[in-house]
Amino acid sequence: MKYYLAPLAGFTDSPFRTLCMMHPCDGAYTEMVSAAGLLHGSVPTHYLMETLAQEPAVAVQIFGATPEEMAAAAREVTEISHRREDAGGRPFTEINLNAGCPMPRIRHDGAGADLVKYPERVASLLRTIKANTDLPMSLKTRLGPWPGDVKMFELLDAAEGEGCVKIIMHARFVRGIHSGPLFYDLLGELVQRAKIPVIGNGGVVDRATAEAMEKTGVAGVMVARGALANPWIFDELAGGGAEAKRLKERDWRETFLLHLELLEQYTAMLAEKYPQNYFHDTEGYVLNMVRTHLVRYTAGQPGAALMRKHIASLESVEGVREFVQSAHGERDERGK
Q1: Contact, 290 vs 77, CB < 8 A?
Q2: Global pTM?
């Protein structure tokens, strides 16, 4: 069984993907990249495709609603991938079309989960992507708009008919957003019919929920929010169980500090690569990321509430590092 890290807006940047891939994570996807942003030359959109040198190969997920957007995005992603490879770097593993994100800001212009209602439109967008790239292509989508309107078979036909190498199916309907019931029976039906690998997604937070999805016969399982500040979940899913829990209890501070270091490297890389476009407050960006999701590492630890409060009050990255090292009772060899 293969385990993948899902694309999560605001979280699955290169530092976090790199961290998860240090555990038994078999593949990761970028945050959702706006096809319209690429069409109109948005520099911030390009940040989402930047990777650290040590990050393993990653897939790019794009979202959009028109063939014009898809064509431009596919060409741009492909050109970037080729340039990376020519420079000795890792090319992208695939282009993934998002046809499942239920957030209003994504659906507003007919993208994301709004596409679930129109399998023929999904097929058209996939056809356009295929015509403008030599990278493998995949589709990420949902069962249908609501339980009374199942679209998964038509969406599967679109994926297979247009040459997708896999389909990633969130086992919820669009109406369920991120917390509605999971329909494993329907996912199992899809697996039985599919000629391409089906990756199951939705509600995987531990070994038990992964096993429930695996029983449908999927070729792989995708983890979303269950991985936030918890790269050890991939150890657990791969069979680590109690050992994964011990790993988290033992080295959460070490992982926190490594994540912090990767964030600093990533931010410095962006600032250097985009000197005219990238914001100048790199320290502020790293601190903001600390306050949005690095503090999740303290969950379940003794004194977690006090630690989170203290970390949130610190005004420098160095202060955060020193506080966590002091709480751990040790300092690194650099004396920071």
Answers
A1: no
A2: 0.93
